[in-house]
Amino acid sequence: MSLKNSILSKSNQFNHYKSEAEKLKKENESLKKENEQMNKKFNINKNDLISQERFSKGISVIIPTYNGENHIKGLLESIENQSLSSEQYELIFIINGSLYPTIEILNEFMEKNPEINVEIHFTKVSGAGNARNIGIDLVKREFTTFVDDDDFISPNYLEKLLEHSKENRIVMSNFIDIDEESHEEMESYVLPFSNKEHGIIKEAPVKFANLASIITAKAIPSSAIKSTKFNTDLENGEDISYYGRLYSKFDFEFYVIDRNEEAIYYRLKRSSSVSRQELSYEFNILGRLKVIEDLNSSLEHAESEKIQKYIKICCGGQTGLMRKYLNEYPEDKKKVLKEIEKHNFKYFPYNKLEK
């Protein structure tokens, strides 16, 4: 081969490899971009996908307690009466108020029930959301449920939650309100006594939006729980925000326990509850807009039509609280509309302001 032909041959080889390298570079950039888009689309980060195999069998119970000495004993009694073997559940208490005398009550409970797996943690940072985030980090069982310190549960509550739990399933229990003063059972808007539906319900988040969005009364796969933290920037409504983000990440199956199985979450209706909150611009307007903003972010990532509907229902519920304020203070409507415009929402149910 002549020197000229040799040079041309090497030049052709160089151009060929250069072309292949550029082609591979473009493919890699395209794959990288696609991966970033998928992560953004499904709101996934490297900590989101956790194998269920890393957890022990059973159910973890996360219980934040803020100055709970006046009411936590009722919950502890209901835990003592659980039909589920103590080997199959763990209790994670997070004290986020005064340490005493709550810690003394819990220590007494542990001494009385040494067979129950109990962890007690303390944080100086206020807020139930922050306390629950600490609990999430500590979960070691396959499934997780949240319980508030002033509520209590039926004897077979944990047993039935665990019995119906599966890796990709949300299990929802029955729900009854207890009057704070009379201690009488009351029908709850969360799940009316008239409900007869149970088992796997495809449209459960839409049909039972109140039950789906309340923080308690359900069991969740711990692999999913570990992927999502509470928004501690929210002063209230963090439970609605939490489930909006959780449901938008995973294609869950929803299961409602038959009322005849008597797996019941009892909620104490207190005068300080959000449903009895006094009207204020801070709570009814600014606070609701922060929650709606968070829900809008979840709506962007929600693939399922049922979850999109569910999130829109939640936005409507928050807007309803705004409407209550405007019904009392109609002179503030222009001010409220300007506040809404600041957020540049992709979805906002303006019609709910008018009803």
Mean pLDDT: 87
Rg from Cα: 25 Å
- How is the largest sheet built, in terms of strand order? 3-2-1-4-10-6-11-9
Instruction: Kindly provide the name of the CATH class of the largest domain.
Output: Alpha Beta
- Distance N terminus to C terminus? 89 Å
What is the correct CATH architecture of the largest domain? Alpha-Beta Complex
Would you kindly provide a written description of the structure presented here, covering whatever features stand out?
By secondary structure, the protein is of the alpha/beta class. The protein folds into 2 domains: 52-274, Spore Coat Polysaccharide Biosynthesis Protein SpsA, Chain A (Alpha-Beta Complex); 277-353. It is built from 12 helices and 12 strands. The chain has helices at residues 3-42, 72-80, 102-112, 128-138, 157-164, 204-207, 209-213, 222-225, 238-249, 281-301, 305-328, 333-343, and strands at residues 56-65, 89-95, 117-122, 141-146, 152-153, 169-172, 174-179, 185-186, 199-200, 218-221, 253-256, 264-269. The chain has an 8-stranded mixed sheet. A 4-stranded mixed sheet has the order 5-12-7-8. Helix 10 runs antiparallel to helix 11. It is globular, with a radius of gyration of 25 Å.
Give the gist of this structure.
This protein has 12 helices and 12 strands. It has 355 residues and is of the alpha/beta class. It starts with a helix and ends in a 12-residue tail after the last helix.
